[in-house]
Amino acid sequence: MGVVLRGLRQALAAVLLAAVVALAVAGLWSLLGDGSFLSRFALVLLVLAGLIGLTSGAVFTRAHEYEHGRRPDLDDHGSPGGVLTGVGVFLFVSLPLFAAGAVLLTVA
Fold first, then answer.
1. Which is more confidently placed, 52 or 84?
2. Which of 26, 39, 56, 69 has the most Cβ atoms closer than 10 angstroms to its Cβ?
3. Cβ(45)–Cβ(22) under 8 Å?
4. CA geometry: angle at 84 spanning 8 and 101, to 5°?
5. Residue among 42, 53, 70 at smallest CA distance from 14
6. Greatest pairwise CA separation for the chain in angstroms
7. Cβ(49)–Cβ(98) below 8 Å
8. Which segments cross the bilayer (predicted)?
9. Are the C-beta atoms of 57 and 93 separated by less than 8 Å?
10. Triad 43, 44, 46: Cα angle to 5°
11. What is the 3-state secondary structure (H, E, C) of the chain?
């Protein structure tokens, strides 16, 4: 149960980080040009969701391994150290970002 909660916390942190990055990029983009902030925010969310989905969360897994002193070239598939797999990142990070971007784009 502890691994699941750590994975969900990691997914929530990734979604929040992506939202903050999207807010910053959309704000800068809106300052530099004419246009709706909301539609630009939605587009940036969609792009980030695609990028995170394409990388399959490899960035998050490697960062977690380095944080805990493990070398990413040594695979230890039996340990519960890897919190989110590529599928978990896709389901719990990329899809919510994509859904939020799609909803905001239809509203804007």
1. 52
2. 26
3. yes
4. 65
5. 53
6. 52
7. yes
8. 12-32, 38-60, 81-105
9. yes
10. 65
11. CHHHHHHHHHHHHHHHHHHHHHHHHHHHHHHHCCCCHHHHHHHHHHHHHHHHHHHCCHHHHHHHHHHCCCCCCCCCCCCCCCCCCHHHHHHHHHHHHHHHHHHHHHHC
Q: Which two tokens stand for residue 59?
A: 């960035």
The tokens 């980030």 sit on which residue? 48
**In whole angstroms, what separates CA 80 from the centre of its chain?**
21
Single-letter amino acid code for the residue at 80: P
pTM of the model: 0.74
* pLDDT, position 88: 87
